[in-house]
């Protein structure tokens, strides 16, 4: 019997179940919802393979769909009254609760998801690096169970604090770099039948260093189109929809879309970005949302600037359809949808997007774009062309998975003319994957336009870094060490 906590949904759950079936495991996926939430959402969850479980902790009140298994929810991060006492992970209670509940449920093996929530600092469940305490406590719980004993809550807390004081560090990947190169190279030759390309090899090595298990790397190669000799059939693009509540609005999204998971669980998406953006809007602001996805931020901005205009630019066809429907359903009449891509020149771009996600990205190179339906060609235009006659432009929000440098270079004239605040996702890894040049040169370009930057931290106040490329890159390196994939930057006229 294998029991999991907070398992992922959609295709990830299907892949996990396939793996467990192949290994001959019996398994149960438990979802932590109060009874009223289970009655509301349980049918679809049960269809996905979940069963209901609820074990309240007396010191944590239930707000919306939040369960006691996720203590530490902090209303202050959203500027609301703090209704739920913060129960930090740092005392070991949460792991003890999960593990003990699993054993009492008859599990012989336990998978606990969400290790990033213990090790990295997250916005939704604010924590700090635990110095390996969660790792040591889990080992202690397992050792005690094997010896026929369940640790008490107090014993778990004491073990946790001893681990914290010892300064234990968890090394996610301890492989020698030369052996790592050989390992990845052997997979290219043995599975794909070719030599490793430099960018691909570097990407897999980076994944290993960030904690990806070698077995998962092997599975990644085995599932590659090159290895399978086929591509995803067109039927795989079919999808169902679901409705999510978001700031007194209703969003229609792809069922199980992982991009919407924060909204699905918490009614928010990247609130550190949302809060910074809304603080810059006035009732008559003119905003451009590049990479509007299904429209959550565009709709919210439109409501906060009722006398202004929000231009929602979304190139991927599936997303623009959802965007159009969400604008219609919520009656936000000042959102203007522009279903094309933003780049440094007019033409066409090749975009990739899987069937069960809305996270499209501009990609090109050796992909089989003719036979793989996940690739589509979309028209592109420069913002300089699009807004050449604009009288006003106050804010640009841009999140397009590494294509930001080209999109903003194509907006140089309007940026110089209107001096908008720019809120931008920044990930050197994404920029390189999108073949959009040197990330440091992109920063120098923005700073050359007379801008300074702030890092929008997930669990702290925005931090000014002025016009320092080195400071931004240092923050990015720190984020990578915490397994955070990107920075969110706010550029303001200096």
UniProtKB/TrEMBL annotation:
Gene3D superfamilies the record matches: Glycosidases, Vaccinia Virus protein VP39
Lineage: Bacteria, Pseudomonadati, Pseudomonadota, Alphaproteobacteria, Sphingomonadales
Superkingdom, taxonomy of origin: Bacteria
Transmembrane spans: none
Residue ranges of domain DUF4214 in the record: 179-229
One of the Pfam families matching this protein, by short name: DUF4214
Domain Methyltransferase FkbM: residue ranges: 289-452
Name of the protein described by the UniProt record: Methyltransferase FkbM domain-containing protein
Source species of the chain: Sphingobium quisquiliarum P25
SUPFAM superfamilies: S-adenosyl-L-methionine-dependent methyltransferases (SSF53335)
InterPro entries given in the database record: DUF4214, FkbM_mtfrase, SAM-dependent_MTase, SAM-dependent_MTases_sf
